[in-house]
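Incident log, structure service

09:12 report received: a user says their structure output differs between two submissions of the same chain.
09:20 pulled the input from the user's history:
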Amino acid sequence: MEKQQLKGGIFITPKEIELITGLSRNRAYLEHLAIRDALGKPGKRLTVREFCKYNLLDYDEVVAYINPYR
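09:34 re-ran on a clean worker, output below:
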């Protein structure tokens, strides 16, 4: 697979998690929060790379999937 350039910044939103996983908006927000807590991240930001690593997802596939929505 060709390396994709991530559009629109490095952070992932609960809306994008909803899109990727098929979870409801509220459940996607809770997933975003749970990952940040598990990684010990202060604040409300989570990078796409951290999300992928935590969920054992291929970064390039996720980038290719979310880029059209950014």
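09:41 both user submissions now match this output. Likely a transient worker issue. Closing.
09:42 reviewer note: The helical segments are 14-21, 25-39, 48-55, 59-66. The chain has one domain: 14-69.
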